[in-house]
Design a protein that fits this description.
Layout (H helix, E strand, L loop, with lengths): L6 E3 L6 E8 L5 H10 L4 E5 L9 E4 L2 E4 L8 H4 L4 E4 L12 H19 L5 E3 L7 H7 L6 E7 L12 E3 L1 E2 L4 H8 L6 E7 L3 H4 L3 H11 L5 E3 L2 H12 L2 E2 L5 E3 L6 E5 L2 E5 L4 E3 L1
Helix pairs in contact: 3-4
């Protein structure tokens, strides 16, 4: 059957997609955002709403690093064009909390963030990467579509578990993946990278990420997306309805979806039934 051979392409009939995920809503986000915006890249920023405006520091690798947070009244404008996502209110180890407190940390953070950005907040990153099956089960009732852990795959593969998502790399491991990601080939690739913006102060390597983002940005063949845009697009592809004989497909979602069938590529528009 023809539809069994249909494979996904990224929007614009692309085979490359790039997304970033950064935690803690720290002041260093401001500089990082300027680099993303200059290069046409998009990112998700996971926020602890209980820490907005707090001034504090961390000791990392023997260095005192500023860990101060942006103010609540800055969030909507500063992160415009990017995704704001849950990181819980107070950044606890969720695996050590009772069920009711896990739910409260997530739901209250959602509520606080949604009051600022005026859209449903449906993404998340686990504080400290702490996750287990119990926590995953609780998130399913909290309106969370995906949640990022801290493990990495070193690959360009699609997410295997929405609520225990592992990115391709931490930004300290980004360099060896850039050329393979941009290189020749028509296989579907997703490069996903996570980190904390204060870590560029920790190692004084802002120049490194700036060069990397310059190399990765502004490519016509790359789809630049937030985390939630990636997950929503994959869900739209999976929800396509094919006729039994594989001649027609209906896209019931609100997103245009791109397909590859052998050597043929096509876009199935939102709400459209297309002949294959």
């Amino acid at each position: 059957m023809l539809h069994q051979h249909a494979s996904m392409l990224w929007p614009g009939l692309r085979t490359r997609a790039l997304t970033f995920s950064y935690d803690d809503c720290v002041l260093q986000d401001i500089k990082l955002l300027s680099l993303f915006n200059r290069n046409g890249e998009k990112a998700t920023f996971n926020m602890n709403s209980g820490f907005f405006g707090h001034v504090d520091s961390l000791i990392r690798e023997g260095r005192v690093v500023d860990h101060s947070h942006v103010r609540a009244d800055e969030v909507a404008e500063l992160y415009k064009g990017h995704e704001v996502a849950v990181h819980t209110v107070t950044h606890p180890n969720l695996c050590q909390l009772p069920d009711c407190q896990v739910i409260d940390e997530v739901i209250q953070d959602r509520r606080n963030l949604e009051e600022l950005v005026h859209y449903p907040v449906r993404g998340m990153a686990y504080p400290g990467g702490c996750v287990d099956e119990r926590v995953i089960g609780l998130l399913k009732g909290c309106g969370i579509v995906y949640s990022r852990a801290v493990g990495t795959t070193g690959r360009f593969s699609l997410p295997e578990e929405n609520l225990n998502w592992k990115c391709s790399c931490h930004h300290w491991g980004l360099e060896p993946l850039i050329e393979p990601f941009l290189g020749e080939g028509d296989d579907l690739r997703l490069l996903s990278c996570w980190g904390h913006a204060y870590e560029f102060d920790q190692r004084s390597d802002w120049d490194v990420i700036e060069r990397q983002l310059d190399r990765l940005g502004n490519h016509d063949e790359v789809w630049y997306a937030t985390n939630i845009e990636v997950f929503d697009y994959i869900a739209a592809f999976k929800a396509l309805d094919f006729t039994v004989d594989g001649r027609f497909v209906t896209n019931r979602s609100a997103l245009d979806v791109c397909l590859r069938l052998g050597k043929k590529s096509l876009t199935v528009h939102a709400g459209e039934t297309a002949e294959l």
